[in-house]
User: Fold LLM class flavin-dependent oxidoreductase from Rathayibacter rubneri.
Amino acid sequence: AAAVLAATERIVVGIGILPAAARAAAFTAMELGTLAELFPGRVHAGIGHGMPHWMRGLRIWPASPLTLLEEQFDAVRSLLSGAETARDGRYVAVDSLRLETPPAVVPPLLAGVRGPRSLELAGRIADGAVLAEPVTPEYLAAAREHLGTSGRVVAYNVAAVDDDASAARHLVRPGLEWIGEPEWAPHIDPLPFAAEFRALRERSADRAAFVRDLPDEWVDQLAVVGTPSSARARIAELHAGGAASVVLMPSGPDASAALDQLARVL
Assistant:
């Protein structure tokens, strides 16, 4: 984020996301405060649960992810405001600390969350939500019901474009191989083909087989994919559904070529 901010003058850079379990609240506040002080008004910060299997692999997945996230938001927001902060929570402890140079413009804090309870918490404590891929119109609508009407929503999607829609689907499929795992259930539940989707994953030998056998029409719903015009149409649909920002995650063996192709969508 710092490199992009330093190399540009106007764009807003969003950080999505900082795992709450992996970072002390004071260090998160200091780092965000430094960026916000150097680049006022140009930083948005996402703080979230993180990937459960990554956090478990580090042995830092909490017994109560919701409690940790709420305590982290409370402490980081207090520190960024310049207030002397004392907290003695279940997970977050701060002994009367204050940032020496709090930022004049406090960056918005968005919650990186997925499921209903986490989204409801985000609606209470955060300035918006960062939704991981895939964000379909159906999942976006369900998420906004739990979030409420206020707050910025950032929607991530795996993406590939080509003048040949079939070629674009071929490129995007590897980026979808994880979405059949249990953590992605909130994304899949609202879809009209959710039952068939789960049945396919259950009978697939592995993730590679699963993603290979996804019907084209499902791929079109689960990614921003196809020709540049069809990709623009999907982005417009997500904006109309309440996404303030749509993040495209390039998929394919050549990242530079994928970015060049995605630039055609703009």
User: Anything to note?
Assistant: The CA atoms of residues 189 and 252 lie 27 Å apart.
